[in-house]
Amino acid sequence: MSENSSSKSSGFDRRAFIAGAAGSALVPMTARAAAADASSPPAQDPALPVDVTLRVNGNDKHLLIDARTTVLDALREHLGLTGSKKGCDHGQCGACTVLIGDRRVVSCLTLALAAEGHEITTIEGIATDDHLHPMQQAFVDNDAFQCGYCTPGQIMSAVACVKEGHAGSDADIREYMSGNICRCAAYPNIVAAVKQAAPEIMKG
User: Fold this and answer.
1) What are the Cα distances from residue 46, in Å, to 65, 68, 77, 87, 183?
2) Is-contact 145 186, C-beta < 8 A?
3) How many Cβ atoms from other residues are within 10 Å of residue 108's Cβ?
4) What is the model's pTM?
5) Which of 67, 95, 92, 94 has its CA nearest to residue 83?
6) How many of the other CB atoms lie within 10 Å of CB of 62?
7) What is the pLDDT of residue 17?
8) Dihedral sign, Cα of residue 184, residue 147, residue 155, residue 54
9) Of 8, 73, 151, 152, which alpha carbon lies 20 to 30 A from 178's?
10) What is the 3-state secondary structure (H, E, C) of the chain?
11) Strands 50-56 vs 119-121: parallel, antiparallel or unpaired
């Protein structure tokens, strides 16, 4: 006698039993998922813009931006601060260097949301009134730029280099400025500028 015939004669339906058992196993899982959904706030649509307040050069700036916006794009595209340059957009050339707190960062790889609550200083924010920052003046005095595209990032990195205590020798300056590329190869003049500005910066 076949299995089907045996099932029918005994009143036991094997397929119905398996389907019922599988269904009953799913009920607790479905109930738990429904309970979790009820207790969790709905996730925000990542495509929607978010509110963020950036403190840039001493001023709070309120923005409504895509959550994926970088500090560099927030500065350039939303705040009109175009001093920080977009070079490689991969964090390799240093043209976009700004200070966040006392740290130099490549702003093309830093999300604006991550910088909220921290002081952001750009090249536009280091001069006072009509007086250039000592590092800006040293770059002018030592002809430490040619095309000038990398200069804002070089200056911001150089300020941090001095404040970090890495401007004691030419070798140290070259090492700690190595993340900033100058395609015009003004490196000897950049080292000279950092050496000139260092005593005044450390004094102040």
Assistant:
1) 11, 9, 20, 27, 38
2) yes
3) 23
4) 0.78
5) 95
6) 8
7) 53
8) negative
9) 73
10) CCHHHHHHHHCCCHHHHHHHHHHHHHHHHHHHHHHHHHHCCCCCCCCCCEEEEEEECCEEEEEEECCCCEHHHHHHHHCCCCCCCCCCCCCCCCCCEEEECCEEEEHHHCEHHHHCCCEEECHHHCCECCECCHHHHHHHHCCCCCCCCCHHHHHHHHHHHHHCCCCCCHHHHHHHCCCCCCCCCCHHHHHHHHHHHHHHHHHC
11) parallel
The amino acid at residue 101 is: G
* pLDDT tens for the 204 residues of the chain, in order: 455 554 455 556 666 656 665 555 545 555 555 555 556 667 777 778 999 999 999 999 999 999 999 999 999 999 999 999 999 999 999 999 999 998 999 999 999 999 999 999 999 999 998 899 999 999 999 999 999 999 999 999 999 999 999 999 999 999 999 999 999 999 999 999 999 999 999 997
165-169 contact pairs (CB < 8 A, 24+): 167/194, 167/195, 167/198
Cα(96)–Cα(74) distance, rounded to whole angstroms? 12
Residue 163 has which token pair?
């404040």
Residue with tokens 């004691």: 168
Inter-residue contact 101 to 90 (CB < 8 Å): no
Would you state the pLDDT for residue 179? 97
Sign of CA dihedral 154, 159, 164, 170: positive
Residue with tokens 């952001």: 120
| Tokens found for residue 91 | 């964090």
